[in-house]
Structure formats: structure tokens, C-alpha cells
Write a structure and sequence with these properties.
This protein is mainly α. It is built from ten helices and two strands, in the order H-H-H-H-H-H-H-E-E-H-H-H. It has a two-stranded antiparallel sheet with strand order 1-2. It is elongated.
């Protein structure tokens, strides 16, 4: 063998522990020699045969990792799915909660600057995403490098019993969950903006839409309900399916919003009607605006309640039918 083989073996052994180098040195040289001899016997020139064999063996660092049983990936296939499942769940829970919590805290301490509150909330969410991705991945990478496997962590192996139901119409998608959380955060932002500014401009002048006395009790309650809606969406996603218990909880959240909203609309305590003086919408404008709003609240609320029970019913039906179809 020429110095080319010596250089190759030297490069491969550099990252091998000292106690393993002797055995791997002999084994690797023997493998190279056998492969080169086979090519020489087939009529190839010795130098060309050696160069071809070493090219087929590939990067010596990769070969050394294989000999040392050291993975060249960050998260290997044994733990990848567990890493991905945990990371998605934490991102879905922590990032939206960081956004909502930051908005609420900043607006409570400094209500004069909603733009800064939203900027801080966005920064907090992005920071939560980066921190979670880094630390969760780091922990799994350390576990991987120490040779720990799923069974060592007490994680149960996959079995056919873990297969999902054949019919999956009522599974909760990640996109729907994110949309629900973002929508709750958006409406919280609108309410907080109304607290310090205006959602409506007429003739270039800002006008109030909601009566300010609502901030004494009702609007903080609405914000709390919206936060609960976001938490409910996350819990539902983690559970993965609708049940009658979730439908009942969804009904409770809907009623917590519907009942006070309809009562406040019926008693004229929602809108600040002073803005009507700047427009020519007729004498009954306040009546039809309140009526349309109440109808919208009622229809959307009842639909939300009915849809929850419909999905829970379909899930129960699928649970009953799936065993029989198998």
C-alpha cells in the first residue's frame, strides 16, 4: 500500500478513541487491501485500484463515525418523532400564550402605547419560538450522543393499537388551532386599542365605538374569555379530538360571552352612539346596528355550540363503528 492508504487510515483514526484504534487500524487496512487486490486481479493498475477503492470507501470521517457507532445527525430516527411531537406541542402552547400575556401585561402597565405592546408581544413570541427550538433540540441531541434510546427513557414502543381511527373527520388540525389562537389575540388587541385610541374615524376625527364604562368590568371579562378560548383551542388540539366534555366546555365559553353581550346590547350599554351625530344614517340607526350585532352574536354563538356537539357526536359514532369495521 502507498502513503495514500496510510493518509486515509490516519484521517479515519483521528476521531476514534485510543482503545479502539489498534483493532480498527488492522480491520480497515485489511478491508482496503482485500478490495485493492481484487481490482488488481481483475486487471486494474495498482495505483488506480487503490484510488478507486478509497473513493468507494468515502470520507474517512464518515467511516470513522460508523466504526465508533457515533451518529452524524443531530436527532436520529429513534428519537426524531418524539422530539418533533414535543416541540410542536410546546411551540403551540408557549408562543401564543407569550403573545397574549405580553399584550395584556404591557397594556395594563402602559395603556398609552398599544403599538409598543404588540411589538413587544411579537418579540416575546419569536423569542419563545427560538428558545424552545434551541433547548428542546439541545436536550435531545445530548440524549442522542450519550447513546440513550427510547426504551432507556421509558418510552413505549410503537404497537398497532396506537394506529389512529380509520375515519378522521373530526381530528383537530394544527392550522385550525393556530387560527383560533391568533383570532383570539386579534380581538384582544382590538379591544385594547379601543381602550386608548379609536377603531373608527369619521370626517378624519377619531370617535369612540364602545362605551368607556365597560372597562370597569365587562370588557376585562371579555378579554379573560378570549384568553380561555385560546387555551381551550390548545387543549383541544393536544387531546386530538372532540368529545362531549369538550363540547360542554365549548358551550360554557360561548355562553360566557353570549349572555352578557346580548344583555348589554338589549339595555343599550355597548355602543357609544355619539358618533351617529357625524353621519346621516337615520333616526333608527342605533336600533338596527344593535339589532344586527345582537343577531350576529346569537347566530355565531348558537352555531359554535351546535358545531361542538355535532363534532363530538360524529367522534362517538366513529368510535362505535371503527372496531366493527376492523
Amino acid at each position: 500500500m502507498s502513503t495514500l492508504t496510510d493518509r486515509y487510515v490516519f484521517a479515519a483514526l483521528k476521531s476514534i478513541p485510543d482503545e479502539q484504534r489498534g483493532d480498527i487500524d488492522r480491520e480497515l487496512r485489511a478491508s482496503i487491501t482485500d478490495a485493492v487486490d481484487a481490482r488488481i486481479d481483475a486487471g486494474q493498475a495498482p495505483a488506480d485500484a487503490e484510488n478507486t477503492v478509497l473513493s468507494e470507501f468515502g470520507d474517512p470521517r464518515r467511516l470513522a463515525a460508523r466504526y465508533a457507532d457515533r451518529p452524524l445527525y443531530l436527532i436520529g430516527p429513534d428519537l426524531f418523532l418524539d422530539w418533533w411531537r414535543l416541540l410542536k406541542m410546546l411551540l403551540l402552547i408557549v408562543a401564543p400564550l407569550a403573545f397574549v400575556a405580553t399584550v395584556v401585561v404591557r397594556m395594563a402597565t402602559d395603556p398609552s402605547d398599544p403599538a409598543a405592546a404588540f411589538g413587544a408581544a411579537l418579540s416575546a413570541s419569536l423569542n419563545a419560538l427560538v428558545q424552545l427550538a434551541f433547548w428542546v433540540t439541545l436536550v435531545f441531541a445530548i440524549i442522542e450522543r450519550t447513546g440513550t434510546r427510547r426504551k432507556d427513557l421509558g418510552l413505549q414502543p410503537w404497537t398497532p393499537e396506537k394506529l389512529p381511527p380509520l375515519q378522521r373527520h373530526n381530528w383537530i388540525s394544527l392550522g385550525d388551532t393556530i387560527a383560533a389562537v391568533v383570532l383570539s389575540a386579534f380581538f384582544i388587541g382590538l379591544l385594547l386599542w379601543q381602550r386608548v385610541g379609536s377603531l373608527l374615524f369619521l370626517a378624519g376625527e377619531p370617535v369612540l365605538v364602545l362605551q368607556q364604562h365597560l372597562w370597569n368590568f365587562w370588557l376585562p371579562c371579555v378579554i379573560a374569555v378570549l384568553v380561555l378560548e385560546a387555551v381551550f383551542a390548545v387543549v383541544l388540539y393536544v387531546a386530538g379530538r372532540w368529545t362531549y366534555a369538550f363540547a360542554a366546555a365549548n358551550t360554557g365559553l360561548a355562553l360566557l360571552f353570549m349572555v352578557p353581550a346580548l344583555w348589554l346590547l338589549a339595555t343599550g350599554q355597548v355602543f357609544d352612539w355619539s358618533f351617529l351625530s357625524a353621519v346621516d344614517w337615520g333616526a333608527n340607526a342605533g336600533t338596527w346596528i344593535a339589532g344586527v350585532t345582537a343577531a350576529g352574536v346569537l347566530i355565531i354563538g348558537l352555531w359554535d355550540i351546535a358545531d361542538g356537539f355535532r363534532k363530538a357526536w360524529k367522534t362517538s359514532r366513529e368510535d362505535a363503528v371503527t372496531p366493527a369495521s376492523s
